[in-house]
Amino acid sequence: MLNISQLESSLWEAADQLRANSKLNANEYSMPVLGLIFLRHATNRFNAVKAEIEKGLSSRGGKKRPITIDDFKGKSAIFLPIEAQYDRILNLAENADIGKAINAAMKAIEDETKMLEGVLPKEYTSFEQDLLYNLVRIFDREELRTATGDVFGRIYEYFLNKFAMSGAQEGGEFFTPPSLVRTIVNMIEPDRGNVLDPACGSAGMFVQTGHFVENRGEDAAAKITFYGQEKSDTNTRLARMNLAVHGLEGIVRQGNTFYDRWEELLGECDFVMSNPPFNVDGVSPEKVKTDSRLFTEKKIPGIAAKTKAVSNANYLWIQYFYSYLNERGRAGFVMASSASDAGHGEKEIREELIATQAVDMIISIGTNFFYTKSLPCTLWFFDKGKPAERQDKVLMIDARNVYRVVTRKIRDFSEEQLQNITAIAWLYRGQQERYLGLVGEYLNKTHQEAGTIEGVLTQLESPLAKLTQMLHTFSDRLGASLPLLKDLPEVEGLVAEDIANQNIETFRATLSELEAGIQEFTAARDVLIGELQVHLAWFATQAESLSTNEAQKDCAARFALFIPQLKTLQKHINEVHKVGTRAVELAEKKLEARKQDIWDGKEVKKQRDALDIVRDEAIFAIKSTLYVKAQVTWLQSRFPEAVFVDVSGLCKVVTRDEITQQDSSLTPGRYVGVTALDGEDEDDFEERMREIHLELASLNEEAVELAASIAANFEELGM
Prior knowledge:
This protein is an alpha/beta fold and 719 residues long. It has helices at residues 4-20, 26-56, 86-90, 98-112, 129-138, 142-145, 149-165, 168-171, 178-188, 204-214, 220-223, 233-245, 285-288, 314-324, 344-355, 415-428, 432-450, 453-459, 461-476, 478-481, 496-540, 549-560, 563-590, 601-638, 656-661, 669-672, 682-716, and strands spanning 59-60, 63-64, 193-197, 224-230, 250-254, 269-274, 325-336, 359-365, 377-383, 393-399, 404-407, 410-412, 651-655. A nine-stranded mixed sheet has the order 5-4-3-6-7-9-8-10-13. Helix 19 packs parallel to helix 23 (563-590). The protein starts with a helix and ends with a helix.
């Protein structure tokens, strides 16, 4: 089975290593690499579709007619001339100019595909020949030669992500973090009609929309027309390539959205989604004062006295998003946190927006979600088709304390955190069945994970038994082998024999501790497995009844009884592993076991390695079970009746009157209050320790880089 995460990581590591050893910076390198990923995928798709077409070709005189470009229409594949096929480039003669050949391949594709005209990178002749050959080989791994479009889509997005983190392509502004994109898509659910992103970057919103529709078993290309606009030529090209590599079609045009208006789309879009540039301060008021997209009385939020330009364009963007929506349209977009409370002209515009009753949800996001900026942000959502019972209400969610630590500088949402936030919106909309469906999925997965525990616990028996037996055999022979230890020097008045006897005593005490630990572990394991088997058998009969909230709460309460046992068992496993490892190290380091015939060092290492593996598997199975069950607890403890309620520190539904009383603020923190602090549990402690470890590792890396930079500077100065 293909491990896509491992493949992504290994491809990036290999490609980035090549760049590190070249004269290219990340900006020069990123687009050509993305171009090669595109070409590899295009060739794969071409070959697959070609095989399908050939099966249906008519033949005359025993020969089938040649395939033409018309055969590929409607097949979600790009027709590739022979010179543009990846295999042709891979098999070039050694003395061939590979850079020139790849440039020609890209030009040939553009000639055949209108959407990609002038889009693909053609800077390959600036690369060193060896570098290019190695890059081409990297993207010709066996896993990639047979990969599907979804695999390539993920690899393409992964490389976009990594280039954003490395600062390539305009400081990463072209790339909206997947967590934020997915949150927007989950909330507005773009599943039909016209979808617009007037600041589309690399088209991440469109790609995630495609995933969303496909996950419903539908064809995104058949149901949605994508419209995108980008000021940057580079970003426009990235967006078109991204659409193509995911098998999507759309109109992405280059233009400055402040001045280049897509008039024909006003009031015609079913969905608008975007991550516009924040706090732009150079927009000409003369050029926008008659803009029909600025629907409020105030229109322009304010003009800076010094520059005579719009002081902050955030509320221009916000008006655009509203104006492009049709009468039932939804919008979701990223906005600077400051916009939620901004005063003066921005407040006047915000008051008019609130009066439209289209403001539907506001979500506060914490720091470090962007790869190049550490500031927090806010997600805004409009819904012009809100039902009457919600027209006067806005859902406020403060998600600043909901995140997963990726690195010291980067956070995101885990899959479960994203689903849980989405579930809050479902309850707000009265979609209880979807909420119950998610809790049901968590309960099923909890029991699936729990079902693996018995097997991994049983696997611990063999390496533990074998290691213990080898340690006992060694211990039994220690009396006869004691003279071998008398070469030790005297230390602080103790003769060598005294030191040896102390080491033997410590070793045997550790061995006794190991045996006691194994007995405790075995007893706890047997009790757990016996009770868990009964519970899992009961759960297998409950599939039909777990659709109600009461049944789900009962099931969760039954499983909660196992949580203390699982945590205790986890401690036993770690303790047995630790003591067993210490016993082996005492034998080898203090009692010179490797010098004695009775000690089979290779077999000891084999069993230690086996114990490491099964220990990790057992701990993973227990933690996975507890983690999924924790999601059930997170939801049920906050929404015990499976209906929306205000949750302190997390969410609250507010009325227009309440918003008016708060000076028309749309900052969730003003309304939801502060979460009551609970005692820090073991999981919280582990997560905090992980954060500290990541921070330390990152600081160490930066220290090494800084030292190398200082050394290089001194060398240049001849010092």
